């Protein structure tokens, strides 16, 4: 629709709208993630997971709408009609471009359960982002050498501020 706009203007518009979208959903996401973390009642936590997934679906849906609005992308997707929200899938990408994750989210949003990304335990995501992701049941892993508990070289963060209060 708005693909006639000059690229710099589309870029500014995309960044602003994604920022506004994120700022609108982030407080609600944080509130629900915090409630899930604090309240130890299993039915309540399950309800929080449903709400967190819904927030993520709406956020991704807006980003997809924005992509349709600002860009004329022609997708060639095969087999998506056979996917189901009732089944889990292991989705991988080759990270050949920065667009892998938005492209996968565009194609698979509302067709399969919410995508869960593996998070490195050493990733410096900040307490709020980490709380949201862990609250949404994103798996966290630590890289180790086979047969030892030592981390992969270069991932040690001794005395780093993000090591305190990890979830």
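^ structure tokens above, recovered residues below v
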């Amino acid at each position: 629709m708005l693909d006639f706009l000059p690229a710099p203007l589309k870029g500014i518009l995309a960044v602003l709208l994604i920022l506004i979208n994120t700022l609108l959903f982030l407080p609600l996401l944080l509130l629900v993630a915090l409630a899930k973390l604090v309240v130890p009642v299993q039915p309540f936590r399950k309800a929080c997971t449903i709400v967190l997934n819904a927030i993520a679906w709406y956020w991704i849906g807006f980003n997809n709408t924005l992509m349709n609005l600002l860009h004329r992308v022609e997708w060639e997707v095969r087999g998506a009609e056979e996917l189901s929200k009732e089944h889990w899938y292991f989705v991988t990408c080759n990270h050949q471009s920065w667009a892998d994750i938005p492209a996968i989210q565009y194609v698979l949003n509302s067709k399969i359960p919410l995508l869960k990304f593996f998070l490195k335990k050493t990733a410096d995501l900040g307490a709020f982002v980490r709380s949201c992701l862990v609250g949404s049941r994103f798996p966290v892993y630590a890289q180790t050498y086979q047969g030892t508990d030592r981390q992969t070289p270069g991932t040690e963060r001794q005395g780093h501020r993000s090591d305190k209060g990890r979830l």
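Strands lie at 119-120, 140-141.
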